[in-house]
Amino acid sequence: MQMEKELESKLSIQSNNPPNRSKSFAFRAPQENFSIHDFELGKIYGVGSYSKVVRAKKKDTGIVYALKIMDKKFITKENKTAYVKLERIVLDQLDHPGIIRLYFTFQDTFSLYMALESCEGGELFDQITRKGRLSEDEARFYAAEVVEALEYIHKLGLLHRDIKPENLLLTSDGHIKIADFGSVKPMQDSLITVLPNAASDDKACTFVGTAAYVPPEVLNSSPATVGNDLWALGCTLYQMLSGTSPFKDASEWLIFQRIIARDVKFPDYFSDASRDLIDQLLDIEPSRRPGAGPDGYDSLKKHPFFNGIVWENLRMQTPPKLALKQKVHYSGGNDAQDSSWNPSHVGDSSGKQTEENYVPVASITRIASIDSFDSKWQQFLEPDEVVIMISMVKKLQKLTNKKVQLILTNKPKLIYVDPTKLVVKGNIVWSDNPKEMTVQVSTPSTFKILTPKKVMSFEDPKHRAIQWKKAIEALQNR
């Protein structure tokens, strides 16, 4: 009971009076005394590091919500309390047709719940995947609706910091709504009321977001600006038109190298207007990106790519037709994967893990040297050696767990480094023979590397166990 009280105290959102703000602060989305059993839970929309979003129908009203379920224990353990509070407070104050709406919250012993607007059209990412790539007219409409919502967000003095196709949801009739404000950051002149016990990071530019959409200034630890979101918009528009992100590669390390080098190639079928807009949004200098300069969003909206867009009544226009998910027919009754949710899932840290698609190792080349991002790991590489996979992991042992930097290179070489002393603590003897070296994945975050002489267990907090397995096996099969 004592632990429950401590959690309740840490995670409850108090309506304190912030300085220089209104003396009263009332939430538009109330905190209700509901129970998870008041809802009929359906399919899982998405899984995060400490949360899951589930389709939930309120039993007494029949209204469908996207219910975000957050693990209290994980939130307090990983010091994410302020981020959760900030997301709740920001969503409560946002009121725009292009932004997901928060209706109410509730909690129980183990979880926090946010009842969000359910977007039955799914993710924009799914539309891109189902169609292969979008037509320019489709991409123009979706990009325009994102621009309109981003302009609203930025005028309020907020940065989203995780714009990508997976966070752009579609209503049942096909209009875009920006979701997932878990990385939101209020700027100094923000018009949003932020309570004293809910604040984002105080560092100039903490690394947040998704690797393929992170701008170069974040890798260089420059202050966060609206240009961060505009770079991600450029990456997203590129992905709409091509079917893949502009900096896609086999590992985060290689993605970061390509971003630093601004190594982006445009397919021949891109129009001059689309190529020019993406090229400008992916400008190395954030203030030069359309929407970030002195002319504000006018320069972005007036770009030739948006010719034909009527900005005044964008939400009244007919959106592109949605590509429906193909039905999968299973031969056996027990072979179908059950993606529905039931209360026994609550508090369970397992979930569907997204697997990265790896390009063949033969196509991996050294694209750029990184001088400003994790350059300390370069000392462990030979002149022509390139990192394929790198991550701070826990080396799991019987008595103690030690943090190490696990590094896989194209030599191939697999080592783990003491991140404090910067010395190699171990070299895993490489073998192309799967009988002499195998990788076993236990959970989305834990995996084992088995060799004839020893078995080493690791835990990747970013849930990339399957990526480690794929990367190692790809090198073995090169």
UniProtKB/TrEMBL annotation:
It is found in: Cytoplasm; Membrane. Residues 328-354 are annotated as: Disordered. It is an enzyme of class 2 (transferase). This is non-specific serine/threonine protein kinase. One of its GO terms (molecular function) is ATP binding. It catalyses: L-threonyl-[protein] + ATP = O-phospho-L-threonyl-[protein] + ADP + H(+); L-seryl-[protein] + ATP = O-phospho-L-seryl-[protein] + ADP + H(+). It comes from Daucus carota subsp. sativus (Carrot). GO terms for biological process: intracellular signal transduction.
